[in-house]
């Protein structure tokens, strides 16, 4: 039930800190080593792995794009992320040393199940990341890592997304540990950083008032553009997906560096641009991209790191999130984007939990 919330989506947005804490619970042994019992792969399998493919649809695909950065950085293994409906009809180069991570909240998405089967046919090792115990995908995988988000009712996925990112973060650290790419204490430190996220998420969720005002401006727009770089790209894509699916506004996400190659032509006076501009090695690049769209008349909202006053000089509005390790920002930066989409949809009188033309679980091609 909605427990006093007007919509399941809002309830689920606010359940995210607890869902992340649950997903991270009891992932270590008494020595602080990460143990993923559900995985059933031994260290030798993981050490000999030479490639990871991630396959998924929609929001789960965006979680895969976020995880690519963590797995490559921490575990030192190349990652390709692919839309399941494309992967299943392709001839990817797969061997017993390929790990295919299939992500699906429901575990019942036809294309993701078919992509996993396609991988298994070619003897790749399949790990399912799912929120539903015993779902079809989990039964067909070699190993499973469960998110513990609890039931997600709203069609727009929120807590499933952030718990997938958290679970994939643990998987990345587990791979790093087994492949000896990080020292045990580095793994422990990074896991401890993940464990601090629920508290920081609470802080971001509490600052919601300002976002309702921002959403009013967004709801009046014909077109909303989201930009980011590095692991801000999947958050830009996710922000746009959330907004389009529940408010029906036209929204798109782009890697900010691609603007000059076409999308900047869309910028018009007063058109809203939401930029993921948190601290990290690409921060100054995003700030330049903000200046470029500003110069062409865009009204820019930046999602930035607390204390970053410089960004204020360039953006019209700034939404702050607490400072974290660069690889962990997506779990925080997506929160205001979920809230903006939610408020815009409510203002426009949309059916937030049951948007038109969409089903919660896509069991057809
Ligand atoms: O259950 P799954 O994770 O496999 O679902 C995948 C997509 O259908 C899902 O994420 C969809 O994009 C959501 N409606 C997005 O909010």
Q: Main sheet: which strands, in order across? A: 2-1-3-4-5
What is the count of helical runs?
13
* Helix content percent band: 40-55%
How confident is the prediction overall: mean pLDDT? Answer: 95
Overall form: globular
Structural class from helices and strands?
Answer: alpha/beta
Please trace the helix and strand order, writing H or E for each element. HHHEHEHEHEHEHHHEHEEHEEH
Bound small-molecule species: 5-amino-5-deoxy-1-O-phosphono-D-mannitol
- Low confidence ranges: none
Distance, first to last CA: 31 Å
Tell me about the biggest sheet? 5 strands, parallel
**What is the strand tally?**
10
Active site: 360
Main location: cytoplasm
GO cellular component, one term: cytosol
Catalytic activity: D-fructose 6-phosphate + L-glutamine = D-glucosamine 6-phosphate + L-glutamate
SSE topology:
Blueprint: H1 8-14, H2 16-24, H3 43-48, E1 51-56, H4 58-75, E2 79-83, H5 84-87, E3 98-104, H6 110-121, E4 125-130, H7 136-140, E5 143-146, H8 159-178, H9 184-206, H10 209-219, E6 223-228, H11 233-247, E7 250-255, E8 272-276, H12 283-295, E9 299-305, E10 317-321, H13 329-347
Parallel strand pairs: 1-2, 1-3, 3-4, 4-5, 6-7, 6-8, 8-9, 9-10
Helix pairs in contact: 2-8, 2-9, 4-8, 4-11, 8-9, 9-13, 10-13, 11-13
This protein binds 5-amino-5-deoxy-1-O-phosphono-D-mannitol.
């Amino acid at each position: 039930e909605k427990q006093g919330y007007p919509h399941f989506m809002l309830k689920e947005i606010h359940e995210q800190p607890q869902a992340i804490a649950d997903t991270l619970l009891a992932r270590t042994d008494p020595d602080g080593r990460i143990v993923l019992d559900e995985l059933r792969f031994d260290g030798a399998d993981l050490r000999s792995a030479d490639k990871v493919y991630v396959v998924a649809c929609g929001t789960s695909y965006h979680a895969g794009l976020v995880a690519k950065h963590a797995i490559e950085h921490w575990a030192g293994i190349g990652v390709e992320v692919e839309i399941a409906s494309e992967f299943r009809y392709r001839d990817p180069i797969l061997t017993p040393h390929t790990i295919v991570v299939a992500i699906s909240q429901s575990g019942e998405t036809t294309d993701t199940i078919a992509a996993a089967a396609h991988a298994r046919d070619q003897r790749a090792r399949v790990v399912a990341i799912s929120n539903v115990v015993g779902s079809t995908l989990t039964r067909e995988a070699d190993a499973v890592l469960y998110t513990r988000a609890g039931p997600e009712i709203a069609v727009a996925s929120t807590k499933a997304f952030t718990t997938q990112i958290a679970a994939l973060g643990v998987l990345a650290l587990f791979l790093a540990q087994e492949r000896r790419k990080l020292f045990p204490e580095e793994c422990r430190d990074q896991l401890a950083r993940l464990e601090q996220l629920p508290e920081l998420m609470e802080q971001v969720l509490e600052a919601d008032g300002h976002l309702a005002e921002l959403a009013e401006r967004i709801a009046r727009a014909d077109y909303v553009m989201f930009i980011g770089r590095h692991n801000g790209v999947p958050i830009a894509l996710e922000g746009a997906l959330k907004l389009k699916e529940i408010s029906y506004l036209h929204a798109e996400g782009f890697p900010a560096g691609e603007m000059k190659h076409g999308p900047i032509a869309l910028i018009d006076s007063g058109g809203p641009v939401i930029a993921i501009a948190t601290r990290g090695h690409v921060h100054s690049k995003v700030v330049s991209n903000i200046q470029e769209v500003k110069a062409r008349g865009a009204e820019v909202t930046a999602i930035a790191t607390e204390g970053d006053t410089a960004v204020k000089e360039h953006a019209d509005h700034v939404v702050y999130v607490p400072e974290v390790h660069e690889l962990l920002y997506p779990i925080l930066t997506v929160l205001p984007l979920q809230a903006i989409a939610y408020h815009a949809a409510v203002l426009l009188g949309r059916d937030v939990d049951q948007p038109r033309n969409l089903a919660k679980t896509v069991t057809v091609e």
